[in-house]
Amino acid sequence: MSIKANLFYDIAADEIVGLQQLNENKQYLPANNVFTIMARGIFHNWKQPIGYVFVKSSCDAANVKKLIFQTIRELYNINLKVRAVITDVGSNFVNFTNILKVSENNPYFFVDQYKIFYIFDICHLLKALRNNFLKYRFKDKNGNIIHHKYVIEFYERDKKRNYRLAPKLTDAHVRPQAFQKMKVKLASQLFSRHVANGMATEIEVKSLPEEATSTMIFIHNMNNLFDLLNSSKKTSFEKEIFKNMFRGEDYQLNLLNKMLIFFKTVQVLNSVNREVTNTIKSLHCWRITIKSTILLQKELNKSICTRRLNQDCLENFFGAVRQQGGNCFNPTPVQFKRAFKKLFSMQFLQHSEGANSCNDFASMLVAIESKERNQCQIINSILSRTTSAHKSVEVDTTDYRHLDMGEQNSLSYVCGYLIKKCLVKHTCDTCSNFAVACNVLTDDKLLCHFNAFDDDAPFGNLKMPHEAFIFYIATLEKQFASLFSINSILPSCGQNIKAALAAVPIPHPCEQFPHDYLLSLFVRMRIFYSIKLINKQLLSAPKRNRKLAILTHL
Asked: Is-above-0.85 flag for pTM?
């Protein structure tokens, strides 16, 4: 973690805090980094920071080895069995693996008689792969070219649509700047099933060339690989089965072995068609991580929640440290020391009799930083209830917040969502038949086909209403676009828009159809997405230099 170089004289201890101290003696080098080690349970939900050292720049491989070996021995002395070490992909850690002769064939090392598997943080690996993907071209063992230009071509066409195939894609995903390259969220959303399905849709309708198929398949495989190496739940959905805990099942091992071969045989080409594969160190790290995960599960012979095999817990701890100093993004060494001591001991001071300390450990860092935020949420909730003048667009669902919006294909997908919600309110034979009246796979419904979890029917379990209903929703959308800008500055915005949309005749054949609920749900959903889009645009607007802004007030 980066810290601010600053020295502090601790009178009680009669020592200067903030100097590098890798060995027994300090060095007169003001530290601007802190090397931190945390223990984390594989099968039980606990975590605990256990030590740190201040360093000038980074901890070199020799000192990394000394610190890690010493820590592992101390943990074994208190009967904690260390089975794996997880680090990021920094050059010092890569050199550390070279010293230990860790490789794809031997993805482990020994401390005394104990075998320790080495795993690189999957989040750092994904970011590194995204950066290389946007910079170079990949060539697989079959000679197929995987090129980022197809993703950019898909995005440039898709962003101009009112209804998008991949609505989460922004310039930050395909052209990330310095700080955006550090966000795992942007990398995972680029290598996502939605992007792959959107590209598959455009390839099918000839909007993208057939050559883009290899890129689409690569993105699809990376989505599954990240799900498998970042799993935390059980799911029965066929297209989300890779989010299941890692049990060493055949479909999981097949994916891991396939990606292991890919990272071993892939060629990386630069802009002048020159191979630069040997300069991409993260490919080697991918192979070590995949092989370590396979062998670790095989040796433990239990289901593994692979999300615990990353550095998220340590990153969250750094976030908690920063919040201790009034949201200080760059704390000084003494501030880090005090925050570490507080967070380390807080769990023991709040112990309750009969509680499971392991489970409490996992929530220790979250509880400290969330109390004030929860109080603000309660106050805001009370204020929102007391100031509400009407409930004309109130609905009993908010799952549309996770619904993707897109162009013609996504319009059909959204219509299926709306009709499904209405069936919860009222169901009859007429309504049920109307909700699945369109059962023919056409170009404007390919996204629904690819998103269906059941392949027995063209659209699986998804609803696909009558074409008249889709035209009705398209009409509401057109009306909303003209009404929103006018009514957004007026009181009772949603009520006014809903009243105007009520004049549009609905083509549903059932007299008991919940038309009022449908209008409320549509208006709520569209206002939500409109505001979300505006907020994204505001966040992407150019910002003034922070240092320059401070200097102007001096």
From this structure: no
